[in-house]
Design goal:
Shape: elongated
Oligomer: single chain
Strand content: under 5%
Largest sheet: none
Order of helices and strands: HHHH
Number of strands: 0
Helix content: 55-70%
Length: about 160
Amino acid sequence: MIDLGISKLALIGAVALIVIGPEKLPRVARTVGALLGKAQRYVADVKAEVSRSMELEELKKMKDSMTEAARDVENSVQSTASDFEKSWSEATSGLDGPSTSYDTGSSMGSLETPPVYKHPKKNWRLKQKAMPQWFKARTGVRTRTQSGAARVARFRPRSSSTPR
């Protein structure tokens, strides 16, 4: 850029004062200042755009290298998985088929199927707390426990002499 010292600025100011005149000089100075400010902002914007484009290209290169590495890992995992499946099928090839027997230790060597897990059936009546109170009252489910003596006393026929 142009090297402007104090002596050069003073010379430019003196020439501008003579050529433009003292009446128009402040307005021209404001205009020149505004133009210089716009020029500086434009240069800063261009620099920022160039740096952004450089960062974007670096990110694109990094993305390409990462996708390539991911593809390599995927291919190696697939090849390892196929090798494992191949070795698994070779190892289990003799185990497949109807020749599988479960020997229970009997002398006859009878073929029995292994026991199958059976889920226990749940009795929903055991879960009395899950029933609403109105349903218990309607169906006659006891909600309070009583001793045997209290039950006998409750349902004993009344005698005419003792009020309840």
